[in-house]
Design a protein that fits this description.
Layout (H helix, E strand, L loop, with lengths): L18 E9 L4 E22 L3 E7 L3 E2 L2 E3 L8 E19 L7 E4 L11 E4 L20 E10 L3 E4 L2 E7 L4 E12 L6 E4 L2 E6 L2 E5 L4 H7 L3 H12 L7 E5 L8 E2 L5 E3 L12 H8 L7 E3 L6 H19 L1 H21 L25 H17 L1 H14 L3 E3 L1 H11 L3 H4 L2 H6 L13 H11 L9 H6 L2 H10 L6 H11 L7 H13 L6 H10 L3 H10 L4 H14 L5 H14 L2
Parallel strand pairs: 1-9, 15-16, 16-18, 19-20
Antiparallel strand pairs: 1-2, 2-6, 3-4, 3-6, 5-6, 7-8, 8-13, 9-12, 10-13, 11-12, 14-15, 17-18
Helix pairs in contact: 2-3, 2-4, 3-4, 4-5, 4-6, 5-6, 5-13, 6-7, 11-13, 13-15, 15-16, 15-17, 16-18, 17-19
Length: about 600
């Protein structure tokens, strides 16, 4: 027995499924999926087969030509779930399982109508990363075991289903139900399985790009992301032809716990990106970049997560640089530096979680999630680029994509490939310091510009009375304001907060990056005029990136701690399970 992934029961001595055939019935009243999955292996085999499950009600297990076969569920593990072991008769090529999802399925969030924009119909969406596909379908839930899939999803009439797959037709069933069919011909890791069901409309943005959203927000979404085709073209010029046929996007309700999720053919996005001024489309650049770095070439397990996210942050900033220039890229690196510093501070007592080549046996990958694989990883990639030169490095990246196309790899495999193609480069940048040592190496690249230096100097002069002039303020773009706020002292006075709000009109900002940065400063200062807006944001938005700092900043005084607990008690039922866990950990730290 050999388990290559510490977060999966997958046994490398057993065959991998090549394709899934899914039938899912969406039951909003019971808040569950009634499922049937056929795992196709593409060759005859026999013996024990171990699958990942978590909270699933396994009903039947059959093998075509043999009928029902023996199976058992192992002891439940808090992180891994339960191993489903099936005794497969010799000569078999398929295994069929009927099941239902459980009430605590972390992959699924069921929303009541009032939690949606339209407030007239329920909504369902999935989030399978890091290791939650097993709570939606029994499978080999590890990136090593890539699968193509076909699906039929039956939903109440009037609702629409979308998946991380191409549409393959739909029809009314005549009994108040409607079936949607999908096909994903390319092999993907299980964490990219994705489903959403709700009142949805679409707007075409180009012949290969479309945005979906609730009818109430689809026009705003289409305007916000109108430039996505140009973004795709810029990415193709850097990394080669787009490999997934279509680039469609879905704007979800505000409880979605991430900024975006790179599900192929259907990127999931938070509605907090709808700033009204296209100032937050860099998240789309990130998810688009995943089409190459992450989806095409994938980390073999969450211990190598930096291979997905470090390369993607670097690629995202390369795309933004071609679109908006060097100053915009430098601001992006500065914002990333702040996120990295915050994560390093959070894990100051757990330095083993600040390395890139992590060892996560017995650790929930959701608990290890941070900006470190993103930003520290991106700095290693950028260091390699600076060492060998831009042109040579872009050739290397294309070779890397071609060599590992539609496969999942380890850090060791990447390093061996890099050493073969770029001899001596890893040693020259001291790659081991990034991969295996805590913190950020002192030799990590710095990204400077005159614009960034000016913002930094101005923010550093705040305590001595330095203030931006009205003329400076009038000329700032949203990213400049965000960086300025990030570089201000973390402990402001209430008078400071009043000045900032008066001169920047921060309370009414539609850009949530600016709004939450401001509200975090205001919460830390116990600035009471901001409390209603803090309450409003925390009751509405479930994005973990915003919840952690806002609830954290409310921990500074007895009054704000009480406010935080009061808000969480009201907001918690509407949060995704992942978001709820994050906030609970922050509140527990209040009394630590």
């Amino acid at each position: 027995m050999h388990r290559p992934d510490p977060h999966s029961y997958y046994d490398a001595a057993q065959p991998k499924a090549r394709r899934l055939r899914l039938k899912l019935g969406v039951d909003f009243s019971a808040k569950r999926l009634e499922g049937e999955v056929v795992l196709e292996f593409g060759k005859a085999f026999g013996g024990p087969l171990d699958l990942d499950t978590k909270g699933l009600d396994i009903r039947t297990v059959q093998v075509p030509g043999h009928g029902p076969v023996a199976w058992e569920l192992g002891e439940a593990d808090a992180i891994l779930g339960q191993r489903l072991r099936i005794e497969v008769p010799q000569g078999s090529q398929e295994v069929a399982i009927t099941y239902a999802t459980g009430a605590e399925a972390m992959a699924l969030q069921w929303l009541e109508p009032e939690q949606t924009e339209g407030k007239v119909a329920p909504y369902l969406f999935s989030q399978c990363q890091q290791i939650h596909a097993r709570s939606m379908v029994p499978c080999q839930d590890t990136p090593v075991a890539r699968i193509a899939y076909q699906a039929e999803v039956t939903v109440p009439e009037g609702l629409t289903a979308v998946m991380s797959a191409g549409p393959a037709g739909d029809e009314a069933l005549g009994n108040g139900r409607h079936v949607y069919r999908f096909n994903m011909p390319q092999p993907i890791p299980s964490y990219l399985l994705a489903l959403a069901v709700g009142r949805l409309e679409a707007r075409d943005l180009s012949p290969r790009a479309r945005v979906w959203a609730e009818p109430e927000t689809v026009a705003a979404a289409a305007w916000e992301f109108a430039g996505v085709e140009d973004m795709i073209l810029k990415a193709e010029a850097l990394f080669g032809a787009y490999p997934w046929d279509r680039y469609d996007m879905l704007v979800l309700p505000p409880s979605f716990p991430y900024g975006g999720m790179e599900n192929p053919r259907m990127t999931f996005l938070t509605p907090t990106l709808l700033a009204g001024d296209r100032s937050l489309v860099d998240v789309v650049a990130h998810e688009l970049a995943h089409s190459w770095t992450g989806n095409l070439v994938t980390n073999a397990s969450m211990e190598h997560f930096w291979l997905n996210e470090g390369f993607t942050v670097w690629a995202e900033r390369r795309i933004l640089r071609t679109l908006h220039g060097d100053d915009a890229a430098a601001l992006g690196w500065a914002m990333g530096q702040k996120a990295l510093e915050d994560s390093l501070a959070r894990f100051k007592d757990e330095p083993h979680l600040t390395v890139l080549r992590m060892h996560l046996e017995g650790i929930d990958p959701d608990d290890a999630f941070s900006s470190i694989p993103y930003e520290k990883g991106a700095r290693l990639v950028a260091a390699l680029e600076q060492e060998v030169g831009e042109e040579r490095f872009l050739r290397f990246i294309r070779d890397y994509m071609d060599a590992f196309r539609f496969t999942s790899i380890t850090t060791e495999q990447f390093c061996a490939f890099a050493e073969a193609k770029l001899p001596g480069a890893l040693e020259a940048v001291n790659a081991r310091a990034y991969l295996d040592q805590p913190g950020l190496p002192g030799t990590a690249p710095e990204f400077r510009s005159a614009q960034l230096d000016g913002l930094t100097k101005l923010a550093q002069s705040w305590t001595a009375g330095g203030r931006p002039s009205a003329q400076q303020i009038a000329g700032w773009k949203p990213a400049e304001l965000q960086v300025f706020l990030q570089k201000l002292p973390r402990q402001l006075t209430t008078a400071d907060c009043a000045w900032l709000d008066e001169h920047f009109q921060l309370m009414g900002r539609g850009n949530h990056e600016i709004l939450v940065e401001w509200l975090t400063l205001a919460a830390a200062a116990d600035y009471e005029p901001a409390f209603p807006r803090i309450r409003e944001v925390l009751l509405r938005v479930g994005r973990m990136k915003y919840l952690r700092p806002l609830y954290g900043a409310l921990g500074g005084s007895p009054r704000t701690r009480a406010l935080a607990r009061e808000i969480f008690a009201a907001a918690s039922p509407g949060y995704h399970g992942l978001s709820r866990r994050v906030v609970q950990s922050v509140l527990e730290a209040y009394s630590a």
